[in-house]
Amino acid sequence: MSGLFDVSGKVACVTGASSGLGRRAATVLAQAGASVVGVARRAADLDEWQQEAGGSTAAVAADLSDRERLASIVESIAEPFGPPQILIHAAGINTREPADDVTDAGWDITMLLNLTVPFFLSKAFAPAMKEKGWGRIVNFASLQTTRAFPGGIAYGASKGGIGQLTRAMAEAWSKDGITANAIGPGFFPTELTAAVFGDEERAQRNAAQTCIGRNGALDDIDGPILFLCSDASRYVTGQVLMVDGGFTAK
């Protein structure tokens, strides 16, 4: 039964691997025996991640918002271990601009990083996954995939798009052995949520809205990651798994 969750010998790529849930996902996969390529802008933070994770890892320091370089980034990702069979899209941005103050630049970078890059990176690696007849794509959704938060109109639109993108990827590629699912985290202590956790009253208010009664800890993501990246989820595709302590259940 334990073999269901085995990812040893697989090649994985995790974007946003320098911090937060992306870093945690990259570490979990490396410690479970996968060869992991971490992608992020900050080379120094990627170095720290590699030291923390151990195992078989490689780092690609790149700005995913530079669409002109996306083809070369794809080549860099495949260079250390070959094309990945597991692809986790954890890189993202939240500009937190109120609806009346949304700028062209803020909107464009949000859609590019949160929605466009996950599709085109997946499209680039789908042929190699099809050849093997096995692939796992894990997108990062959000509470705002289905809920509207103040200052979140661009972010929420991008994460609502991730829900549909996940279903559309599943429709397109699952017949070839590639599952596409998304994780929808609740409130976890990351760089993106620093403002939330910096306000103790606000953090407690969010915790009280969950069914479990607390906010997320980074290791709460470990099981869902291993589930969605392994054979344990072989008949699960096109789904958004909310890892939110029941926040969206209330």
UniProtKB/TrEMBL annotation:
PROSITE patterns from the UniProt entry: ADH_SHORT
Listed EC numbers: 1.1.1.69
Enzyme class per UniProt: oxidoreductase
MF-aspect GO terms: gluconate 5-dehydrogenase activity
Keywords, comma-separated and alphabetical: Oxidoreductase
Top-level taxon of origin: Bacteria
Family from the record: Belongs to the short-chain dehydrogenases/reductases (SDR) family.
Name of the protein this chain belongs to: Dehydrogenase with different specificity
Organism for this UniProt entry: Roseibium alexandrii (strain DSM 17067 / NCIMB 14079 / DFL-11) (Labrenzia alexandrii)
